[in-house]
Amino acid sequence: MPANYNGIWDIVDCKNFEGYMIALDIDMVTRKIANMLKPQKVIEQDGNFFTIKTLTTFRNYSCSFKIGEEFEEVTKGLDNRKCQTVVNWDNDKLACTQKGEKKDRGWTHWIEGDFLFLELQCEGQICKQTYRKTG
Ligand code: ECB
């Protein structure tokens, strides 16, 4: 039985989002807005099928995937790039690689108790986020 990510998760901590956004060439005005946001993750998991919604007052982003199946991801409303993306299980962690123009791009999720952790990586910059389960 894989880990269960289903639920509503509210951000409680965020480190180096700025560095991650600079690595993605996000302009300064957008970064200033994005840095003030308090994202919520709404995760729907059915076995190996996932939808992860990232919701904010400014923009929303949704990504659906099946574990182990590569797909074309367009990061619409984020940096608007195309990636060849695949998400795999690494024990109970979700490990995503996003192949494209940017090197060493991807993210990892894991759960500890009521907390959901996320590390977003791009070209040596790592943004570390912590979410708490609220639903
Ligand atoms: C949609 C929430 C953030 C909106 C910020 C708007 C502009 C900033 C532009 C680019 C910054 C790059 C990424 C934003 C950070 C998080 C959004 C989703 C990141 C992601 O890949 O989440 C994964 C793992 O939970 C699922 O898509």
From TrEMBL:
One of its GO terms (molecular function) is lipid binding. Keywords: Transport. Gene3D superfamilies: 2.40.128.20. Belongs to the calycin superfamily. Fatty-acid binding protein (FABP) family. Residues 7-24 form the Cytosolic fatty-acid binding proteins domain. This is Cytosolic fatty-acid binding proteins domain-containing protein. Pfam families: Lipocalin (PF00061). The keyword Transmembrane helix does not apply.
